[in-house]
Amino acid sequence: MSFFQAIQTTLRTQQQPLTAGLRRGFATNIGSVSTTAAALKLKSGQTFQGQSFGSQQSTFGEAVFTTSLVGYPESMTDPSYTGQILVFTQPLIGNYGVPGQIQDQYGLSKYFESDKIQVQGIVVNDYATHYSHWTAVESLGEWCKRHDVPAISGVDTRAITQLLRDQGSTLAQLAVGDDAASTTTTAFPDPNTENLVAKVSTKVPLHYNPQGDVKIAVIDCGVKQNILRCLTERGAQVTVLPWNYDFNQAKDQFDGLFISNGPGSPSTCTETVQHLRTAIDHWNKPIFGICMGNLLLGMAAGLDVYKLPFGNRGHNQPALHVDTGLCYITSQNHGYALQDKVMPKGWKKMFVNANDGSNEGIQHESKPIFSVQFHPEAKGGPQDTEYLFDNFLGHVRAMKSASYNTAADQQQQQQHASAFA
Ligand SMILES: NC(=O)CC[C@H](N)C(=O)O
Predict the structure, then answer these.
(1) Residue 131, CB half-sphere, CA atoms under 13 Å: how many?
(2) Phi-psi category of 209—alpha, beta or left, where left has phi over 0 and alpha has psi -120 to 50?
(3) Nearest CA owner, ligand 1 atom 8
(4) Residues that are catalytic
(5) Choice from 76, 84, 201, 292 to test ligand 1 binding pocket (greatest atom count within 8 A of CB)
(6) CATH numbers and ranges of domains, the chain
(7) Which residues lie with the beta carbon below 6 Å from any ligand 1 atom?
(8) pLDDT of amino acid 407
């Protein structure tokens, strides 16, 4: 043990008391750190020993890394992370604590992207036991414990990230307590063989903003709260529907269709892809998809999907808009991508990743149907591409008023004709 590690261990072993706020109006806490051992064990054979600061429960998942500097409450509650052990490349995590579960005026969660922690576990280099923020109500460790989610600190996340980058996202165990020391070889279950979308999708329709002027059907593959907020705060009425709901049966009830983000492999969502195939030809109203929505829409259009070696997760991913050449900095969290070398007839690429050339979006050439691989709703991350919600709802409103006018014109013509019959 190095001198630095020895000092760190000594400091952490001394249970530090709660203190009052350092600054007026800011929740602040110098919490205690458990000295329970924890280890991140990769299926590829490498083990990283550290300390637990979350649940005492060991867990399995796919180890992936994110380069985001902030936004751990949002990332950890994003349903797209279901089944994954999240490694933060940002070394200091936990310093602004965790906010409370508060609802906005639409009944949507204000600070979290769903109602619980969705990641299997988290891996951080330096867990900040002292947190301070005006929205904070508890520490990251307390939050993880309450949700029974394991967390490890004191490991070299740079070395782990280099491994995940070189060998690709890897199945792993986050082992706590006795499991951390155990050398028994375990089987590493692969979450991507399961239909994770079915696990996180709503079971019943949910309604938001009933006063909205246009009605949007949201196919819930694991929708983030801020996507719903981006629609409702722009005046849309939103109905969230289960992932396998056949929206084609209810198309007259809606003015537009949205396909959400979601966890796991898109190949488990064959029913949604089939419904989308019908919708592309017959829906005749705008369709917009994000992340999993891009993958599913692309599959419905005839594209293949492949798994990226380590995915793109972070808040600084450059996406080039093909038509204008403009580059947007985007928020991302995905492991799969569309194979877009040859685009199906009637479709074109909309965005391309400026780092690795992977697909970032597709667009129908003659219908208002488009989707993006990145997250224009951000939370966390830059909001530069939030304008896509304006574009989508702009199309929805234009088509609604055009069809209304057509219907009204037709009715007037009929009345006119019958008056002279
Ligand atoms: N954020 C998402 O929707 C992720 C989509 C898919 N689960 C992937 O990893 O590629």
Answers:
(1) 27
(2) left
(3) 334
(4) 291, 375, 377
(5) 292
(6) 11-190 (3.50.30.20), 196-403 (3.40.50.880)
(7) 80, 261-264, 291-292, 333-336
(8) 61
Asked if pLDDT for residue 405 goes beyond 50, the answer is yes
**186-245: pLDDT as tens digits:** 899 999 999 999 999 999 999 999 999 999 999 999 999 999 999 999 999 999 999 999
Confidence band, pLDDT 50/70/90 cuts, at residue 406 = low
Tokens representing residue 270 in the block: 């064959």
* Residue for token pair 């992977």: 358
Residue from 76, 295, 305, 371 to probe ligand 1 pocket by mutation (most atoms less than 8 Å from CB): 295
Distance CA 357, CA 18 (A): 49
Tokens 């690429």 appear where? Answer: 349
Q: What is the mean pLDDT of the chain?
A: 91
Ligand 1 centroid, distance to 54 Cα (angstroms): 25
**What's the gap in Å between 200 CA and the centre of ligand 1?**
13
Residue 9, SS3 per DSSP = helix
Q: Given this model, what pLDDT does residue 410 score?
A: 60
